[in-house]
TrEMBL record:
PANTHER family linked to this entry: TRANSCRIPTION INITIATION FACTOR IIB, TRANSCRIPTION INITIATION FACTOR IIB-RELATED
Species of the source: candidate division MSBL1 archaeon SCGC-AAA259E17
GO cellular component: transcription preinitiation complex
UniProt domain Transcription factor TFIIB cyclin-like: residue ranges: 10-86, 94-180
Highest taxon, organism lineage: Archaea
One GO process term, biological-process aspect: transcription preinitiation complex assembly
SUPFAM superfamilies: Cyclin-like
Keyword match DNA-binding: no
Protein name in the entry: Transcription factor TFIIB cyclin-like domain-containing protein
Keyword vocabulary terms for this entry: Transcription, Transcription regulation
InterPro entries hit by this protein: Cyclin-like_sf (IPR036915), TFIIB (IPR000812), TFIIB_cyclin (IPR013150)
GO function term, MF aspect, one: TBP-class protein binding
Gene3D superfamilies for the chain: Cyclin-like
One Pfam family matching this protein: TFIIB
Length: 187
């Protein structure tokens, strides 16, 4: 487990997560010590515990970010997470899109006013039931794009999509739906 733990420290540092996530990951890892894992499966389980800790602590990170940082495939992370959820009876809340906005605004080095505007858009979209059941990164990215547009901040769909690890099509789709449904002072 030592090699995996050393790699895990590097992953945490590379993804810039708070200490509380690392502590929660350790708690989850200790909960599964009774199960025996080897090699890549062990690493997949460990990355999945990290993802579960992020979800539990409201620290948005995508499967793709974890896959890129750890060298474990999305599929392995998802399978390992399913295993963890079943064995530990985990109930992982979806990410709050407002937390995703905060994370993406910081990652994209955008202003606080863009973040505030994006959160207003999300709040209005939530009131219109446009957020529930949607990818929180997708609706957050769309709200950021709308906020940038209303604040005259130039940024490409691609740059936002890359930061959110989603496609530009996802942003355009969420943006269109939100724009069509909201009294768009937010164009």
């Amino acid at each position: 487990m030592g090699v995996v733990l050393g790699e895990f420290d590097e992953i945490c540092e590379g993804l810039g997560v708070p200490w509380k996530v690392k502590e929660k990951t350790e708690d989850l890892r200790k909960s599964i010590e009774e199960f025996s894992f080897t090699g890549q499966k062990r690493k997949g389980i460990y990355v999945a515990t990290f993802y579960a800790a992020c979800r539990k602590m409201g620290v948005p990170r995508s499967y793709k970010e974890l896959a890129d940082a750890s060298g474990v495939s999305n599929e392995t992370i998802i399978k390992s997470l399913k295993f963890l959820s079943e064995k530990l009876d985990l109930h992982l809340p979806p990410y709050d899109p407002r937390d995703c906005v905060t994370y993406l605004v910081e990652k994209l080095d955008l202003s606080e006013s863009v973040g505030d505007k994006a959160k207003q858009i999300l709040e209005k979209a939530n009131e219109e039931n446009l957020v529930a059941g949607r990818n929180p990164f997708g609706v957050s990215a769309a709200a950021i794009q709308m906020a940038c547009s209303s604040e005259d901040v130039e940024i490409t769909y691609k740059k936002i999509a890359d930061a959110a690890t989603i496609t530009t099509v996802s942003i355009r789709s969420s943006r269109k739906e939100m724009k069509d449904e909201l009294d768009s002072n937010f164009s």
